Amino acid sequence: MKTxxxxxxxxxxxxxxxxxxxxxxxxxxxxxxLSIYEPPRFFEALLRGRRYGxxxxxxxxxxxxxxxxxxxxxxxxxxxxxxxxxxxxxxDLRRLIYCGEWIESHVLHVYMLHAPDFLGYPxxxxxxxxxxxxxxxxxxLKKAGNAMVALLGGREIHPVNVRVGGFYRVPTRAELAPxxxxxxxxxxxxxxxxxxxxxxxxxxxxxxxxxxxxxxxAEYPFNxxxxxxxxxxxxxxxEYEDHxxxxxVEHSNALHSTLKGAGVYFVGxxxxxxxNFDRLSPLAQEAARSAGLGPxxxxxxxxxxxxxxxxxxxxxxxxxxxxxxxxxxxxFVTAAARAGTGYACTEAPRGILYHRYRLxxxxxxxxxxxxxxxxxxxxxxxxxxxxxxxxxxxxPKEELTLQCEQAIRNYDPCISCATHFLxxxxxxx
Amino acid sequence: MVIGVGNSYRGDDGAGxxxxxxxxxxxxxxxxxxxxxxxxxxxxxxxxxxxAVFVIDAVDAGAEPGAVFRFDASxxxxxxxFFAYSTHAFSVAEGIELARVLRRLPQRLVVxxxxxxxxxxxxxxxxxxxxxxxxxxxxxxEELQARDA
Lengths: 429, 149
Description:
Chain A has helices at 43-46, 55-60, 67-82, 88-119, 124-130, 132-153, 173-197, 240-243, 269-276, 282-290, 303-324, 373-390, 397-409, 415-418, and strands at 18-25, 28-36, 162-163, 166-167, 212-215, 226-229, 234-235, 244-247, 256-259, 340-348, 351-359, 365-371, 423-428. By secondary structure, chain A is of the alpha+beta class. In chain A, helix 10 packs antiparallel against helix 11 (303-324).
């Protein structure tokens, strides 16, 4: 019996602390475990007893890269519980701030965390030494996204301007004008990004995923829609817990999710893209096609192309919103506290983020449930690795390790979110 | 410019911001002060236009709590282990090395690291770290004065 072990301490270039252990017995993969050992953060418990209005500010602390996603899911869930609807320019401003977050999150991943893998560099610094202009472009593009979040949210990290009902303050058209200027440059830079990543080499690794994402009647989804899959799922967000369940597995501090009837499922840019290609702007669709993608993408290594295409879309959509914007009279819709339960699901950069809150008559939170996208993707990551390693067992250990890490980075996992995430062990027996 | 890096709600990770706040209170002429979470790309933006920058961050290097490390980043590369931005991938050290490669380092960049005792949830510095914060703030004050002299 021969045991092979591949070990990665502290998976690099992912958010958070995670480790990977793979067992290969007599030449076949017998076990794959993605261990999230970042300590649990107990946000769901922390929220109990707090006022409904505090949820966006508290949950934003779950993540420094995607705080807007938490704020959007929180406010929509509270508004569902309180029976109010946010429409018109306020609704558009929410899409706009989400565009900013998608841009800064996707661009950080594409340039700093993922591209080095494809180009054979250990990190972005080595990549920058060889291609300084390209990395500068990435930094400037990320900065444009951060600027959008700062302008609309009042602060780049953990924005302070988002509230139940809308915003504390809304911008004037004049305040948005300089942003439009930056976004026109950003849109071009995003198109360059798609052209750049299209030149990378991609292993043939199409997988038969069950994709899950929001789908809306008219738009590429951010905050609203029904939950759909490519296998017949079509439910209202409030039915989420009837169809998706969470379980605690021994090797992870982040709960694993399954879809009843399908088991493992996949959320994030590729899921959104494959279920909503027809909702992308014409420019984004064209960029995708020029990069060699069809309306569905099943190769997780090509997620870097999809993130780049979504960045183009976010710039395009942001410019459209700014162009049509008329400052609303009131920055928020008022609500009266009442007992009830509210549900929401919004599309974080990494996939669907589900929030559910139960409030008492005074509007105090009695119970909270938060399901981040990365915890939902854990089983999919493990399944990919199982398939990938099985097909590459003959590779030398170092090479296999690097490719496993890259395969995990395909998911742009946010392990700090997943625990409310490389230590890679492959034991060959 | 003084940049305090860290999270005040993670125990001794608040060391950097604590040093920065000493300078915010002093309001020295011509001195910019800011607090940063430690994301590398944001740091590069923060020090644009400054010719001399002091960055302070907590470290977890296995040293005695309160131990102070000083690096002249104009002279040497930073060990990335020291300044890991724990839950996100692009740390102080990587930000600085990236800036070096892109020629976006300030003329003078000095980085102070303070070994933390505890990084668990909650605000408040441990005793050794609080003392180190005072020492580092004094030393930076001296370095600033020596520059102006």
